[in-house]
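W.,

You were right to be curious about this one. When I first looked at the sequence I had no strong expectations either way, so I just let the prediction run and decided to look at it fresh. Below is the sequence, 323 residues in total, followed by the output.
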Amino acid sequence: MAPLLLQLAVLGAALAAAALLLISFVAFVTATKMPHLHHEEEKFFFNAGGQKEPLPSIRDSPTKQLSVVVPSYNEEKRLPVMMDEALGYLEGRQKRDPTFTYEVIVVDDGSRDQTSEVAFKYCQKYGSDKVRVITLMKNRGKGGAIRMGVFSSRGEKILMADADGATKFPDVEKLEKGLNDLQPWPDQMAIACGSRAHLEKESIAQRSYFRTLLMYGFHFLVWFLCVKGIRDTQCGFKLLTREAASRTFSSLHIERWAFDVELLYIAQVFKIPIAEIAVNWTEIEGSKLVPFWSWLQMGKDLLFIRLRYLTGAWRLEQSRKMN
């Protein structure tokens, strides 16, 4: 009996090793190159007067204290609520402190509705120095849209904020404090991640057992394969120093939902300090995620992130090189 069990164990280990080699091979041969930053038509934006102007570059010296990048896909209904809150806060902060400067960059990710038109009304109201709209020719995914906005930003610090307004915008001050608490920053690089981990018990009570199982499975894969020490990698409220944004987004390959995990994986490889900060968050109707299939896709992406870097199919950029 014992020899048979030993043989089965050896056979199982051999099959597992063969499966891992096969998956690693598939991950390597299907790895895509770094996505191009923008197409020729996307190198410009329209100012408040309707004239074309070239986009700035993250390689330029910063001229604002804060850039807010808002990825938007078919968000004509939810975007105004978020923009009203964000700009109300930013304008109020500027009145209290005239030295404070900001910009809001709305990146329309190939929407089929009136997202760009809705966003452009804010550009006309506040001026294109404060609000700019970048319209992508086709849908890239949330990560691709944010990457475009980040590389076109002018801020010393860059905030990623979702168009649904799920996170209360004044919580940016919590992220700023978390960022400052990480000083001294190595090479001026640091990241503060908004987190909903403190709301986990409440969310479990409202979820089905199946969705709770998916959530725990996803968290385990994130920890096991990619990112250690961050309980909530997927909150869309993240604040980066300009140098940290340049370094991490220059190596980012994934343009869809798992991009947050790759971003933080890159940051940890570069030993960029990361703070996880609890924020106020409310679930907003209209999510683009389809629970089961989105989690399945993200699970595959997590495995492939790890394997593609391990096999050398993807490499980290050591400088600010951009496409």
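Here's what jumped out at me. Residues 230 and 276 are 7 Å apart (CA to CA). And, maybe more interesting for your project: The radius of gyration is 21 Å.

Coffee later to discuss?

I.
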